[in-house]
Design a protein that fits this description.
About 65% of the residues lie in helices and about 10% in strands. With about 230 residues, it is mainly α. It has a three-stranded parallel sheet with strand order 1-2-3. Helix 5 runs parallel beside helix 6.
Length: about 230
């Protein structure tokens, strides 16, 4: 091997070594950051968040990760003696009209709906209580912002009453609240955010937006019967 080739090889090796060194430094700092964050969390926060992250993988392996800001939010609420505020939104979609007809002009709770209110939600609530973390769990009924996507008010009323009946034992405990998104929360029909609506491309990647448009269009045609 010539002197020139040896020198080039030595330089390449030095660059790789240097970059590996940088990578180790970055990894070390990241680990320190995570350790510092964990050290700052209260024991009950660490226990609860560990349980929640484990639970989400049991329910479905590809569930979205629980973001780190949730740890901080829970920890701050505990430190300040505040209740955790949780929000679950139930969509009042055109699918419900089809289901209403298929179930004989009525709503009969499905197996998954019974499981949700009889087991899944109480299980999560119990994890909060065991760790001494106060909470309020809101379930809101959200209608479409499009006229063509809104269902018959009588069918909506029948659906919300069915859910309320399933949730009644939990509501009586004082921590589960049912609400209408428009009437009780917004006080009006939902509308797009002006800044986002004017330039969606600034906030959503074009490919991701196209996939969502295709998914929603397919649902609208094939399931909801919208044109």
């Amino acid at each position: 091997m010539s002197y020139k080739n040896k020198k080039q090889k030595k330089n390449l090796f030095s660059q790789i070594k240097y970059r590996l060194g940088l990578a180790k430094i970055v990894l070390f700092k990241f680990i320190q950051k995570v350790e510092r964050r964990n050290d700052m969390l209260l024991p009950q926060t660490r226990t609860l968040m560990s349980w929640l992250r484990n639970r989400k993988t049991i329910i479905r392996s590809n569930n979205i990760n629980v973001n780190e800001w949730v740890d901080s939010y829970v920890n701050q609420c505990v430190l300040q003696g505040k209740s955790i505020e949780m929000l679950t939104q139930f969509c009042i979609s055109k699918d419900l009209e089809v289901r209403y007809r298929d179930q004989g002009d009525a709503f009969v709770p499905t197996k998954k709906e019974r499981l949700l209110f009889e087991k899944e939600i109480p299980l999560v609530a119990d994890a909060f209580r065991r760790n001494g973390v106060a909470f309020d769990w809101w379930i809101t009924f959200n209608q479409s912002y499009l006229d063509s996507g809104r269902i018959d008010p009588a069918i909506q009323k029948a659906y919300t009453e069915m859910i309320a009946a399933l949730a009644a034992p939990l509501i009586q405990n004082g921590w589960l609240i049912l609400a209408d998104w428009e009437i009780d929360i917004l006080g009006k029909r939902p509308e797009p955010n002006g800044t986002v609506f004017a330039n969606v491309g600034r906030f959503v990647q074009p490919d991701a937006l196209q996939l969502e448009i295709q998914r929603h269009s397919s649902w609208a045609r094939e399931e909801a019967g919208l044109t």
